Amino acid sequence: MHFITEEEVDRYLPMKDVISVLEEAFEDLANGKSSYSSRGRLKLSEGALVTMPSYFNKYNVAGLKTYVGSQKKYRHVLMFNSVSGEPIALIESSRMGQIKTGALPAMVTKKMVHGGSHSLGILGSGLQARGQLEGILAAFPLDSVNVYSRTPGNARKFAEEMSSKFGIDIKVHDTASSALKNCSIISSATSSLEPIFSRRDLGDTYHVNLIGANVPSRREAAVDVLDQSDCVIVEDMPQALEESAEIMGMKDRKKCIELVDLMKMNSNGMNERKRTVFKSMGVGLEDVAAGYALLKNMKIL
């Protein structure tokens, strides 16, 4: 069995490959072939042991992401050959988690947003905000990028580092409202306990990715962002109703669809929906799919 380090993940796992393999994985899920179980939390004396198992039928791999509490540097993905049962690899997954968390909203955004280039507004300036920018840049040409952080110094550092890395101009804003003005794509990746933007901060047409919270004590968007949208997408509705304050707070959940439903629709089915939200909390299929892409690029599979 191979042990794969963060450095190897960074070297062998480009964002575009993960966007592509996630689309394959969720198409397989929509066809009733792949599967996953909801996030399990086993209570410990301090914190919890988290497990996120899944099966990617198309490529005969199965596995799980697992970690204790919020110790991000100790997160791993264990991969198996689903036919032989042979363990294939144990992967350090902090960087892989960042990549797949950027790739999935990019994949969904490609299905929801059409036309030419777009403007991106980013809320947050940490590890996951960097992944969100990387993912959207891999999927779209951008006219402009704005960033807002509740810690202004972090926003300035984000803009400097990401501008240098990707060769784009990133404008730092003092408020979330000004950062989101005229943006057609919004990605929010914060640890906020209270909403940091509302419907009045958005234009007539938008797609919002909310990826910053998977516990009900946190909320990034005001309830009117979801209530006044045409469509709200989640990976797993029962999980969303347990983990997402935004979904639990909605007045009309009939406008919610699961990601597998989106994969079954043709592009014409979404063209009339001008205000959309994707609330992502993460399922194990994403990690196993990213793990497969990594192992393939490393010529292990």
Number of domains: 2
Unreliable stretches (pLDDT < 50, length at least 5) are: none
Largest sheet, strands/sense/barrel: 8 strands, parallel
Residue-averaged pLDDT = 94
What global shape is seen?
A: globular
Q: What would the CATH topology of the largest domain be?
A: Rossmann fold
- CATH top level class name of the largest domain: Alpha Beta
Lateral strand order in the biggest sheet:
10-9-8-11-12-15-13-14
Number of strands: 15
CATH homologous superfamily designation of the largest domain: NAD(P)-binding Rossmann-like Domain
- End-to-end gap: 12 Å
How big is the Rg?
18 Å
> What is the annotated CATH architecture of the largest domain?
3-Layer(aba) Sandwich
Care to give the gist of this entry?
This protein has 301 residues and is of the alpha/beta class. Helices cover 38% and strands 25% of the residues. It has helices spanning 6-12, 15-30, 94-112, 127-139, 152-166, 176-180, 223-227, 237-243, 245-248, 259-264, 268-271, 284-297; strands at 2-4, 35-36, 40-43, 48-56, 61-68, 76-81, 87-92, 118-123, 142-148, 170-172, 185-188, 206-210, 231-234, 256-258, 275-279.
Description:
The protein is α/β, with parallel strands linked by helices and 301 residues long. The chain folds into two domains: 2-97 and 284-297, ornithine cyclodeaminase, domain 1 (2-Layer Sandwich), CATH 3.30.1780.10; 100-279, NAD(P)-binding Rossmann-like Domain (Rossmann fold). 38% of the residues lie in helices and 25% in strands. It contains twelve helices and 15 strands. The strands form two sheets. Strands 10-9-8-11-12-15-13-14 form an eight-stranded parallel sheet. A hairpin with a 4-residue loop joins strand 3 (40-43) and strand 4. The longest helix has 19 residues, at 94-112.
